[in-house]
């Protein structure tokens, strides 16, 4: 009889505790789903006091429309962060709750550095992203980069080397292309083309290898050292192409010479 009484008391206590837990859980659920916690505002600002050039409240609204789940209490900030980062110009999103019905969104934008292939861009971190290029600032003059998938960081690296080498010559780079065979072509700011050949320094990403090729730095250094002397010898003629795929020199292709003479027309009075 004593054991039965103890068992009965234990069961009763367990039931009572479970009832309390259910009651508390129900209360929390009821409270968490009150209308006062429905998300009604999202504040947007740039990180580190920067300016947002491309992201707007309208673009963010278009990104999240119909996708946010939950309220102030129940929303999953990790999953919500991923949704915000699908917005074209958003590189990173930083979220926190603002009591009792808001979210604070800090945005790090993609900073466009160059165009990549047909319809993508590379940001200043060397990362690919896709966004509406028509939204670029009208004063933006980005170089065009072209290359195989996965080679964008190498192209950025080589571009930086070119800019550094060419700066004393007051020449810039309009376009740089890495072919599928990992050979380089460069269009300079004076519309002259440099044909630089295969890149042995691209072994990490080059499936074809670079055996027998001259290093990228050696090739461009050879051109930079020869260019001032060459300018004195070409007597002002325009060069269309410089072929640097030689170990000890290079070949020039001149622009066609316009032999058309101007004709003056004088009317008799």
TrEMBL record:
<keyword id="KW-0132">Cell division</keyword>
<comment type="function">
    <text>Essential cell division protein. May link together the upstream cell division proteins, which are predominantly cytoplasmic, with the downstream cell division proteins, which are predominantly periplasmic. May control correct divisome assembly.</text>
</comment>
<dbReference type="InterPro" id="IPR001711">
    <property type="entry name" value="PLipase_C_Pinositol-sp_Y"/>
</dbReference>
<dbReference type="Pfam" id="PF08478">
    <property type="entry name" value="POTRA_1"/>
</dbReference>
<feature type="domain" description="PI-PLC Y-box">
    <location>
        <begin position="92"/>
        <end position="117"/>
    </location>
</feature>
<dbReference type="InterPro" id="IPR026579">
    <property type="entry name" value="FtsQ"/>
</dbReference>
<dbReference type="InterPro" id="IPR005548">
    <property type="entry name" value="Cell_div_FtsQ/DivIB_C"/>
</dbReference>
<keyword id="KW-1133">Transmembrane helix</keyword>
<comment type="subunit">
    <text>Part of a complex composed of FtsB, FtsL and FtsQ.</text>
</comment>
<protein>
    <recommendedName>
        <fullName>Cell division protein FtsQ</fullName>
    </recommendedName>
</protein>
<feature type="transmembrane region" description="Helical">
    <location>
        <begin position="12"/>
        <end position="32"/>
    </location>
</feature>
<dbReference type="GO" id="GO:0051301">
    <property type="term" value="P:cell division"/>
</dbReference>
<keyword id="KW-1003">Cell membrane</keyword>
<keyword id="KW-0472">Membrane</keyword>
<keyword id="KW-0997">Cell inner membrane</keyword>
<dbReference type="InterPro" id="IPR034746">
    <property type="entry name" value="POTRA"/>
</dbReference>
<keyword id="KW-0812">Transmembrane</keyword>
<dbReference type="Pfam" id="PF03799">
    <property type="entry name" value="FtsQ_DivIB_C"/>
</dbReference>
<dbReference type="InterPro" id="IPR013685">
    <property type="entry name" value="POTRA_FtsQ_type"/>
</dbReference>
<comment type="similarity">
    <text>Belongs to the FtsQ/DivIB family. FtsQ subfamily.</text>
</comment>
<keyword id="KW-0131">Cell cycle</keyword>
<feature type="domain" description="POTRA">
    <location>
        <begin position="37"/>
        <end position="110"/>
    </location>
</feature>
């Amino acid at each position: 009889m004593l054991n039965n009484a103890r068992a009965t008391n234990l069961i009763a206590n367990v039931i009572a505790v479970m009832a309390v837990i259910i009651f508390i859980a129900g209360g929390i659920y009821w409270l968490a789903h009150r209308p006062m916690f429905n998300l009604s505002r999202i504040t947007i600002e740039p990180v580190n006091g920067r300016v947002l050039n491309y992201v707007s409240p309208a673009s963010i609204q278009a990104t999240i429309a119909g996708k946010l789940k939950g309220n102030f209490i129940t929303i999953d900030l990790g999953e919500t962060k991923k949704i915000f980062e699908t917005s074209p110009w958003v590189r990173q999103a930083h979220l926190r709750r603002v009591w009792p019905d808001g979210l604070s969104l800090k945005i790090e934008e993609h900073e466009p550095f160059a165009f990549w292939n047909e319809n993508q861009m590379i940001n200043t971190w060397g990362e690919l992203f896709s966004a509406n290029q028509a939204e670029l600032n009208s004063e933006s003059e980005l170089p065009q980069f072209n290359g195989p998938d996965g080679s964008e960081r190498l192209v950025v690296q080589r571009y930086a080397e070119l800019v550094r080498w060419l700066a004393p010559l007051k020449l810039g780079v309009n376009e740089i292309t890495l072919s599928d065979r990992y050979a380089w072509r460069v269009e300079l700011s004076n519309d002259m083309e440099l044909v630089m050949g295969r890149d042995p320094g691209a072994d990490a990403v080059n499936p074809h290898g670079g055996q027998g090729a001259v290093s990228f730095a050696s090739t461009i250094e050879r051109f930079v050292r020869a260019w001032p002397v060459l300018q004195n010898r070409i007597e002002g003629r325009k060069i269309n192409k410089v072929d640097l795929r030689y170990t000890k020199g290079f070949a020039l292709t001149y622009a066609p010479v316009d032999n058309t003479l101007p004709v003056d027309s004088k009317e008799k009075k």
